[in-house]
Amino acid sequence: MNDTDKNRIIELIKAGEKLPKEYIYKLFADEEDVFLFWNGRKEDVTNVALPFHSIEHIDEPRKETSQTLELFDTRGRQLKGWTNKLIWGDNKLILSSLANGPIRDEIEKEGGLKLIYIDPPFAVGADFGFTIEINGETAEKKQSIIEEIAYRDTWGKGISSYLSMMYERLKLMHNLLADDGSMFLHCDWRISSYLRIILDDIFGSKNFRNEIIWIYTGPSAPNQRQFSRKHDNILWYTKSDMWIFNVDDVRIPYDETTAGKFESEGTGFGGKPADLSKGKIPEDWWYLPVVSRIRPEILGYPTQKPEKLLERIIKASSNEGDLIADFFCGSGTTAAVAEKLGRKWIAADLGRFAIHTTRKRLIGVQRELQAAGKNFRAFEILNLGKYERQFFMDDLSNGQRKAKEELYVELILEAYKAKRISGHSMLHGQKAGRFVHVGPLDVPVTQSRLVDIFEECRKNLYTQVDVLGFEFEMGLTPQFIQELKEKGVSITLKYIPKDVFDKRAVEKGQVKFFDVAYLNTKEKINGKSITIELTDFVTHYTQDDIEELQQSMRAGSKVVIEDGQIIKVEKDKNGIITKTILTKDWHDWIDYWAIDFNYEDKKEIIKIKNESGEIEEHWTGNYLFENEWQSFRTKKNPTLEFTSIAYEYKKAGKYKVMVKVVDILGIDTSKIIEVHIK
How many CB atoms within 10 Å of residue 37? Predict the structure, then answer.
């Protein structure tokens, strides 16, 4: 760089103007032959270590026949060691917490991550929405605002924002990989060239092994003006020049022409005798059908990949007992195949529906393995819970406690479109004649808190209040809320969505709060035996506005979700509108339900690294939900059982039973039942 260039750069910086790209390249010309630069590139990565909440533990799948749990064949049931992990949340925070937190030690004890396969989102639209079938019609579950924001942050500024998103996450994954580990990144023609350059930058071009082309067939678009795009790209990189490649586990048969030639000539390559029994090493192009052509695998997940594809990758680049991971897990194909092949796994996704789909799929795999007398491992569902919320608030308030508390209340009220009020101890705002209480950031709204709100409302002759919370105590029942209403104060409980932490969503008024759902059960006790019947489920979930839709829609039909109903709206050519409620019964809302017959049997313990680097264990005050019985819908079997098997307690006493319901939108609702066994 000459003196003229240097002086010009100084002038531009002093004037606060942007540097032309040619100057940016010249500044780094001496560092590398090729400098990888895009708008927004940052070298540093997130290094926060947030504790993980364990929200569900699934150790032993139920039998299909009705019998007590004590009669289960426990062969293969895991009693100690690594527990597989299904994690819901932002994978940047998940990766950072795995890399820097206590679970890193667990990962290293397992030999480190030997294989990471990821299939990150392509630039193809809303990646987190999904469709549900309800009484012969299809409804769309739109992506939540937090998912929409993730998509916007990924593609908002075009390719540069996507590269920034991927660069940080790939650096964290590289950090987690074992020295002999492999990374397989699945992509397509839109982004493969960009990702190849980024992977060269992080892993080093010398550690590039293959670009695998997965080819498949399918219908072509009418009137297209290019050849049909019928392949994906899988980029394989290794951490170092040591890597696992189990060539004999992935050999494929020679084709008939080659085999016939070898047999007739009696020789193989190089004139040596041919051993055709082993098969050959596959080429770097793989012809495998897409999931839509494999009926037993279809889950209705738009980006689902075939198990044969993951089977080849996992067999080639890991061994039995190795730990592998997928941080964009989608429908859970990587985890399902890993379980079947005797590997340990970590799977993560931002989408609630992805986590729920994977949970059902893995329970199904556990059942299959147990029925076949094969080993299976437990898995737990984790999230960052209140620690993720605290992280967001610390970021917004620069860590100042008083500022954080005030900012938090103002943030929630703004998102709820409520006006701030003062002079009250339990009431924070007012909206359309109703008072508003903002529940705490890091603990559930309790029954005692509701009593305090009720007393303040009754003292001031207020009759209506909305209570907003991230979590609510399990014991809050419709009966308790009804009792408060009969005493003069109507209280409505509403969930605060994670979307409130995005300022853009709040400013645009996109954040939607929805009423807490309720479930009812009936318990039947016979001696020391108990059965639980699910008797009712009430939700007020809303994602659409029927009135707005009716004014804007043209002739045709649309399925909407409003106030706990899924409704088909039809408009004929004369503008006549008819509505048909598709959710005819509460049963239609249930996709999955599960029971922990002794909920307070196991405390939820989180591990935190202190300032000196030592790991401390803390009880959260909550208990671990151990999934002891479950019934759920699948494509093959859409029917549900609404009465559990008989569970036998070993001794008399008082117990708490927890029932968890996941509705067809993937949203959890729980209830605790107190039972007395004599």
Answer: 11
- The continuous run of DSSP H or E covering 152 comes out as helix 145-155
Backbone angles phi, psi at 13, to 5 degrees: -65, -45
Token pair 């079997």: residue: 637
- Which run of H or E residues covers position 256? helix 256-265
Greatest mean pLDDT among 13-27, 135-149, 251-265, 653-667: 653-667
Q: How many CB atoms lie within 10 A of CB 109?
A: 11
Q: Terminus-to-terminus CA distance in the chain, angstroms?
A: 87
* CATH fold for domain 388-515: Trna Endonuclease; Chain: A, domain 1 (3.40.1350)
Please give the structure tokens belonging to residue 130: 């999904």
Record the tokens describing residue 631, joined without a space. 């019934």
Domain borders along the chain are 1-35, 53-62+78-220+227-244+283-383, 388-515, 518-677
pTM equals 0.84
Which residue intervals of 496-615 are DSSP H helices? 503-507, 546-552
Domain 53-62+78-220+227-244+283-383, classified CATH 3.40.50.150, yes or no: yes
Task: Determine contact, residues 576/560, Cβ cutoff 8 Å.
Answer: no
Q: State pLDDT tens for residues 547-579.
A: 777 878 888 888 888 888 889 899 888 888 999
Return the DSSP state at 291.
Answer: G
AA letter at 455:
E
* Residue 351 to residue 360: CA distance in whole angstroms: 15
646, two tokens: 């008989």
User: Regarding beta strands 529-538 and 647-648, do their DSSP bridges make them parallel or antiparallel, or are they unpaired?
Assistant: antiparallel
**Adjacency order of strands within the sheet including 434-438:** 419-420, 429-431, 434-438, 464-469, 490-495, 514-515
Q: How confident is the model at residue 363 (pLDDT cuts 50, 70, 90)?
A: very high
Q: CA 390 to CA 179: how far, in whole Å?
A: 34
Longest pairwise C-alpha distance within the chain = 100
What does the pLDDT read at residue 29? 66
Give the 3-state secondary structure of residue 555. coil
pLDDT in tens, 147-195: 555 555 565 667 888 888 899 999 999 999 999 999 999 998 888 999 9
Which tokens is 554 given? 């043209």
Q: Please check whether residue 514 is in contact with residue 669, taking contact to mean a CB–CB distance below 8 angstroms.
A: no
Q: Which of 115, 116, 85, 117 is nearest to 101 (CA)?
A: 85
Provide the pLDDT for residue 76. Answer: 46
| Residue whose pair of structure tokens reads 């556990």 in the numeric block | 366
Asked whether 487 and 514 are in contact (CB, 8 A), the reply is: no
Integer Cα distance of 394 and 392 in angstroms: 6
Type and span of the H or E element at 199: helix 192-203
Residue given tokens 């940052």 in the structure block: 42
Question: Which is more confidently placed, 243 or 62?
Answer: 243
